């Protein structure tokens, strides 16, 4: 127990845990912060008996925006100002403003500049703060003075009311900026699972510096608790996305942990490049980074509550943007609920700047799986198992849907000749694809395509590459595809939407 009248200074990187903290004078309890990190305090007072403290938050990286959240009550915009220095901006995010993702022109967002120095800054709410370039190691921190918080936080309670959904479309509304209200890191996945309703189970965190983009972490499900925990440092703000009326979210205080591995996110490449999912695609361009995660079930999944895909929150136009789509939704974590042996994932990509672009792929799939990248602009197919990097030239004038990823896991019931030569035939978006890794077969193949009435749609002698795309003009029809090589014939029925 830390008793009233006792003095405690918790230095950067230091951690203290108390059963109870009693303190009426903020000068007696000081949590310090510098470029190496922040002090950490965990205690278990009741909601109505919270101590007072002085808490520092290091935001020393200059000329960058930081998503921050105050750890004390009684805070105003004036606390972000240091005498003689002026930050360029302090803003809050208005969910009610129509969010229009690119590439739509005049994309709007809800950032609203705070001009009144007496404007109240709320515990649990997030803000965007632009660091003044004049700041030094001595002035690179913001200092808050007030009462702390140690109980569970319900962001949708009457006292906070920080979650809004204006509707009518979750693709354009529902983005709420909230924050870690505690004097320790929140490590989601180590304590009681966060309770949510009408909210996507994820947190979007701004990562400046070398990445300059938003990255998303899925809230761990109960059975996943230690697998991919979300680390939200003290003072860190993050976005959540409401998708319907009356959004609710409650975070439990037993997720607080002493974690000094990550200070407030400013320049942490290891966070951006952390790999999870079956396929993780990273894009590099214009000294910035983006990520698309694809989760592909490799066997039949029997569950009443399959995991949902997670939406994309677009970063600034000078940074590359990766996404897939589900209808009108833009997606950052694409999760498929069902197993099929051949699947194509359409990849949306918007370069940050014209010129050199780089894709890298981390693939965690069975050894027999095959993954190919299709560049629809050049017609190039690349085996991503053999070569998981793809360098290319790009510009904002390119087709957003320039790329596709082909996933092939040959089932057990195809004909023996196809298995022997590892051939598969499937369809996607007005085209038939033939996967053929056997160059001897490809050099002397005849391809026949028939409709279900036996009418010839295509007959052609061709050299089958590793992956060959054959456009067709039919719609909503089954086609029979035959590949003949000498006396051997492979037949497959496909459906063209």
What's a quick, concise take on this entry?
With 497 residues, the chain is an all-beta fold.
Can you describe this structure?
With 497 residues, the protein is mainly β. 3% of the residues lie in helices and 41% in strands. The chain is built from three helices and 42 strands. The strands form twelve sheets. Strands 25, 26, 27, 28, 29, 30, 31, 32, 33, 34 and 35 form an eleven-stranded mixed β-sheet that branches. Strands 1-3-7-14 form a four-stranded mixed β-sheet, with no helix packed on it. Strand 25 and strand 26 (288-295) form a beta hairpin. The radius of gyration is 27 Å and the shape is elongated. The termini are far apart. Residues 267-271 and 411-419 have low confidence and may be disordered.
Q: What are the SSEs and their pairings?
A:
Elements: E1 8-10, E2 15-17, E3 29-31, E4 33-34, E5 37-38, E6 40-42, E7 52-58, E8 65-68, E9 75-76, E10 89-93, E11 111-113, E12 120-121, E13 127-130, E14 141-147, E15 153-154, E16 175-179, E17 185-188, E18 195-197, E19 202-207, E20 213-218, E21 230-232, E22 237-241, E23 248-251, E24 256-257, H1 269-272, E25 279-285, E26 288-295, E27 310-311, E28 321-326, E29 329-335, E30 342-350, E31 355-363, E32 370-375, E33 380-383, E34 389-394, E35 403-408, H2 416-421, E36 424-427, E37 431-435, H3 439-442, E38 445-451, E39 456-462, E40 467-471, E41 477-485, E42 488-496
